[in-house]
Amino acid sequence: MNSRKKMVLTIMMTLLLIFLSGIFIQQRIVNMLNKAAEISVARQTEDISLLAGERFHRFMTPLQTAAYHLSTHEQEKEAVLQMLSQQNPQGQVGLIDFQHHTTGRFLSTASFPRLQMAFHGNNVIDYNPDIGILLATPVFYGDNVRYVLYQVYPPEMLPKLFALSDYDAFTHVIIQYRDGSLAVPYENYTSNDTRFWADDTIQAGMQEVHERLKRSKAAAVYTEGAEGKFFVFGADLPQTDFSMIGYMPWSAVAGQITSIYQRVLFLFSLMLILFACLSIYLLMAQTSVAETEELRKARAEADAANQAKSQFLANMSHEIRTPLNAISGMNEMILRQKIPGEVRQYASNIKSATAALLTIINEILDFSKIESGHMEIVPTDYQLATMLREVCTLVGLRAQAKNLQFKIHVDPYLPNYLHGDAGRLRQILINLLNNAIKYTPNGSVTLDISGHRSESTLHLHAAVTDTGIGIREEDKNRLFRVFERLDIERNRKIEGTGLGLAITHRLLTMMNGTIKVDSTYGEGSVFTIELPQSISSFDPIGVFSLDNQPVFEADLNKPASFIAPSAHVLIVDDNDMNCFVASSLLKDTQVQTVIAHSGAEALDALQKQSFHVVLLDHMMPGMDGVETLHKAKELPNISNTRFIALTATAISGSREKFLAEGFDNYLSKPMTGAELAAMLERYLPAELLQKPLTSNGAPATKPAAPPAAQTEQAAPAELPTAEPLIDQKLGLQYCNDMPALYNNVLALFCKQSDGNIAKLDDDLTTGNWKDYRINIHALKSTSLTIGCRSLNKQAKELEQAVKDYLADDAVPEQKQQALNYIQEHHADTMELYRQVVAEGSQQQPTT
Amino acid sequence: MSFWLHHSLSQWATRLIVGFILIVLAAACWIFSTSTFDQPQPKAGIVLLGGIHEEGWNAPQYRGIRKACNAMGIKLLFKENVNTEGACTKAVQEMADNGAGMIFLASYSYSQEAQKFVREYPHIAFGTNSAECHARNMTSYFVRMYQGRYLAGALAGMHTKSNVIGYVAAMKNSEVNRGINAFTLGVQQTNPNARVVVMWTGSWQNEQKEAEEARRLITEAGADVLTYHQDEPAAADVAEKLGIDYIGYYEDLGKHEWRSDHALTSVVCNWDRYYEDIIRRYLKGELNYVDKQWVGMEADFVELCDFSPAVTDEEKAKLIYLKERMLAGHFVFAGEIYDRQGQLRCRADESIRDDRLLQHMDWLVKGVEILE
After folding, report:
1. CA B57 vs CA B145, B182, B252: distances in Å
2. Could you tell me which of A82, A218, B84, B372 has the fewest CB atoms within 10 Å of its CB?
3. What residues in chain B have per-residue pLDDT under 70?
4. Which element (helix H / strand E) includes A799?
5. How far apart are CA B298 and CA B328, in angstroms?
6. % of chain A surpassing 90 pLDDT
7. Residue B339 in contact with partner chain A when CB distance is under 8 A
8. For residues A286, A287, A288 and A293, what is the CA-based torsion angle, rounded to 10 degrees?
9. ipTM > 0.95, yes or no
10. CA distance A99 to chain B (A)
């Protein structure tokens, strides 16, 4: 508001300045106009004065003629005088000689002092207020003046003879003698005129005129007084002691100029109005600026409050996760006991409630992370197939539980090896599918995965189609809003935070993806996302089917898949319950666990004994996880010990943070027994791992690469030799489940084998690496098509080695290494090839 | 609109607009406060034959016009020592280039040259005191010095004991002749028996000759009152030295402390009034209305300076009477006048017309003697 006051003040000051300078300029303009008019009137006066002068000289001419006549005819004085009287009866004619004797009109030389000049030989015009105007001319006799011939015009005659009133209608001119006495008034000169001339302003004007006349021929002055606006002017009549003065109304002179003046005034007013408008506009702008400023502040405050809220939510969810960890862990312990069916029912209810609660907390946490800007996208290399399998396993169970049909179609030509944030993509898909399942009472949920490629980017399309309740048209744009739940009446029984789609939407936005919804209310919806993912390898994903995929996650709830009785694991957590949960979960694996309740205790334990794996909680009073790790790393004989961070803080980037600090991996609490087991299986030395004695799942069904190992480690488990080399089922998948086709492909595979082997051998010996690479690549593909994973794998590795060898930027050591690998493994691969062919040709054609 | 919403931008715009308006206002005020009607200061010029500090003719001329110009707020341009062939033309050219609106050629000597160049400057009003030169834009401007001569003559007539009065004259022209004639008529007015003895020097400035002739007039002719018509008072100095009375011309000799009571008076012209009149006429644009202008004692242009103690009150009274009579119409050159040859130049009931006095006074009145 202060600035507004300042603004108003500025405007007022400026207006005042404009106003003042307007007055100043107006006065200057008036002055200048009047000055210009004065100059032009003065010039006019000069002309009038010449005219007046001429009039005097006109009366002088007959006198001069007569004087000339007289100078040659001295005796004709009487006659000449008479003739002059007749010619010009108004003038009283007379003749005066050097001794001042007069003939005709009597004249006293005292009355007209200038008469003497005539005796010097000059023409004379003189004035006496009582007698009138005298015109005199000398009469010469040779070099000398003997008489002066003159005419006297009495005052009453003067206006008629000499007045200049006929100059124009507006101008009034009187002739003055040099002493200021009025000599010739204009006609109709009345007492009003006398009063006019006696007016103070007019008198002051006349004084100024006379002042100026001292230095110029003619002068005019603008006066403004009681009588109105006038120009008074004056000029000396040349060759006489007369001057003429007069006045004319201002309007007669400056009438035309007035219009200019008015226009200037108009312009100035316009400028003033314009400025006023501008000022008002600016003032409004200023006000709105101030309002915007307040709005901005309010928004900043709201943002800060929101941030605080998000932070609070993040903290709260962390606080909730810790006890939840205990609940779910304890509950799992209960479920592992031999307990009555009723109790088992209660416990499994607790389990599902815990899982639901965890999902909700995770959603809130994700959302608060997005809101507070802590959510980060961390791209890694991943396999699309693996990711989809995980999603489908999870979602498929849910669909099954709800008696919904779950279908998945994957374009087999999509590249399998992609680069992107697989975790977030998985989350998105799960969210969408869960959402679809949630809102579909019966029918099916279908996931369609397709995509199109542009250069090295795959635009992944995922469409989730359900036969659910659908979305009303008017609700569609509320779909992705936070906490919005549509169609409340109908969906009252459906659980959820309402954050799922909002999170999905935001995650997609963060990853440059899009989402759109097509829905028919009451019939179902289609959610389609598009997400760019960079391609790291163009190997096709192949035929993807749910049914024959080993369901890894299905094992999660089962007892550990291994035992390691000689492994030593140190569990470090300040929370007793958490320690207990962790050790309980590991009971099945038979690993030796030691528990430490603080960083210091952990270090003591590490000094006393060496451990294969340390599960280290991060959030501990005193020494936290990271610090403990750093101290532990300084201990001797620690190099073989693997450290895994445990944390309930599932903030984005924590994994990277922990890895950067030196941890080998990290687990987010609450963790399941399976997660923990998988982690241990990965980090415990392989020689310590043993098959469980009472395992109810065949170890052979274990996938070649467990999900935890996908990034760093090759599959730890070797295929047993008893296993058939060719997996017909797999081969059939690649042939669209058409046995005839498969048989043909297999036959062809066997038939070409000899030639291929020979060619490959030949290429190897001749060093024709390009051809070798092409052939080995072909072998890689065809072996998978017939359903032989082992050959596919070996061919693939060989191909990689050739690629490495041929790489432009490869250093000689690398090249040598690659070459060594090829030479070592070529023979083995060829041997396997032959075995596969042998098996393939023995196999009964499938029907 | 969003453009204006930015706080600082809006303030900036406001300042810009306000600043712009102030600049416009200032410019408008400035434009209107400088008047286009002020006319440049008029300039008048004077060309002088001698230096501006040479007493006699030149210095009083310069002082007069300087005083007049200062009084009327006019810038004065002057060129002194313009006394070589063509120098006047050059001086006038220079003054015209400097913007002189009026130029006064203050010497008879310029008439020949002026004849050639005045018409080239139609926009300049010329004034001169040479009667021999006329042009549309040049007016001869004279002073009736002869009126003062007449009274000086009357004083000399009253003062002489020897009845011989010496007159050192420059050359035979109307002006000098007019002076001699008026002086002689004045002498005759108070002393009909006195003679006026004239010697010609033949130049305006020749101190040696003037002094020599003054000495001869005193010693040879026996003059006991001396006057002269020269640009410098060499003759007066001789009279002072020899201890006889003298009357100065152009310059008030009596003001010098070292001069004795023999410096009876001086006939002087009030040059400042003279130039003031000329300049006023110039400013009023009527300097060249007539081809000649002749002013005299009636306007106090010409006067006798303060008398020396040697002049008695009766003499003064006589002079006052003569002056008043003259101004009342009893002119110097009026009434019966004969020349040296005995020819009647003016009848008793006549007066000689001005243009004759100015240009055609090629005769000397009866009673003038010439000492060769």
Report:
1. 13, 20, 11
2. B372
3. 1-11, 14, 34-39
4. helix A789-806
5. 10
6. 4
7. no
8. 90
9. no
10. 7
